[in-house]
Task: inverse folding
């Protein structure tokens, strides 16, 4: 593994999942792997789980983690090549990233999309510029279009929760939200579940909320949420803004909120969400506080996902 930006950086998903589960059973089994190494965690946007779980994962491997909230504390970065920097940006990534490459052995970056320009966001300019100029392995802590550490966590959680000798039915359902949110988690979950190939995967959302087939190809897609939920073993709840009319909110129909009544059609499904979640908008209190919800268990697995990825990057000569 050279960088960790998407599922395409992983040669064997199940091997990575098993490694994560081995760390869960024995967190300090590789306590010296990261000795004398440093990871820089750059946040251009807020985070709780990603930040803390990656710090803990690094500590478990004996590695120092330094957090830098670039969005709040750093110089405003310019990412466009050949930009005339007469506006608000103060430092070009071309100048900043090589310095970070000298300070750190691995760089983690969180950089959300603008939701203003689909082409720019989907080019992944920000994270690609860091890869181009830092000269060290880069880990996505959620980029403009993907959230691979979350998706690896999700597959770890499904693997350890589902013990039957058949393929689980996994449903990704759109949920209402008050703000326009990125498509990252839904794109990434779809990409990983399809690449994993060990679940019957259904995506349900209102009309005009289609995701890019580059991520969803292989899934069954329906606008009928009730139909989608029938017999589901896992229901992954997530909002995303529109893709074709980029970054817009068309529908906030509360009827799409997952409730206990809707879960009656499932096969006693476990309910997942990447968090943070808007209670009684995306998911009802009843579901979140009930026995079906595994969101806390899911979030706790973020540590083991991060630890398995960092160990892969540390295992190659840095
Ligand atoms: N799920 C997730 O990435 O959480 P944070 O935004 O808190 O890191």
Result:
């Amino acid at each position: 593994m050279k960088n960790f930006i998407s599922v395409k950086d992983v040669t064997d998903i199940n091997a990575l999942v098993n490694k994560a589960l081995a760390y869960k059973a024995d967190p300090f089994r590789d306590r010296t792997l990261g000795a004398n190494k440093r990871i820089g965690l750059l946040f251009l946007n807020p985070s709780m789980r990603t930040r803390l779980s990656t710090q803990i994962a690094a500590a478990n491997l004996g590695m120092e983690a330094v957090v830098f909230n670039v969005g709040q504390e750093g110089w405003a970065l310019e990412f466009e090549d050949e930009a005339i920097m007469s506006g608000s940006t103060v430092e070009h990534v071309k100048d900043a990233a090589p310095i970070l490459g000298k300070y750190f052995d691995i760089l983690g970056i969180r950089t959300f999309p603008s939701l203003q320009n689909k082409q720019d966001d989907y080019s992944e300019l920000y994270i690609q510029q860091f890869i181009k100029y830092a000269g060290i392995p880069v880990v996505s802590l959620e980029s403009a279009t993907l959230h691979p550490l979350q998706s690896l966590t999700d597959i770890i959680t499904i693997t350890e929760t589902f013990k039957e000798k058949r393929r689980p039915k996994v449903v990704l359902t759109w949920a209402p939200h008050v703000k326009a949110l990125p498509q990252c988690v839904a794109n990434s979950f779809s990409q990983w579940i399809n690449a994993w190939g060990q679940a019957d995967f259904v995506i349900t959302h209102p009309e005009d909320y289609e995701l890019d087939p580059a991520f969803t190809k292989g899934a069954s897609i329906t606008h009928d949420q009730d139909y989608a939920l029938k017999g589901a073993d896992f229901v992954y709840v997530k909002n995303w803004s529109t893709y074709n009319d980029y970054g817009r909110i068309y529908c906030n129909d509360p009827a799409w909120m997952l409730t206990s009544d809707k879960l009656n059609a499932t096969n006693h499904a476990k309910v997942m969400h990447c968090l943070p979640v808007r209670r009684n908008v995306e998911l009802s209190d009843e579901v979140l506080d009930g026995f079906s919800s595994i969101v806390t268990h899911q979030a706790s697995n973020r540590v083991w996902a991060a630890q398995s990825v960092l160990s892969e990057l540390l295992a190659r000569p840095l």
About this structure: The chain has a mean pLDDT of 97. The CA atoms of residues 146 and 184 lie 4 Å apart. Residues 47-50, 142, 150, 274-275 surround phosphoric acid mono(formamide)ester (CB under 6 Å).
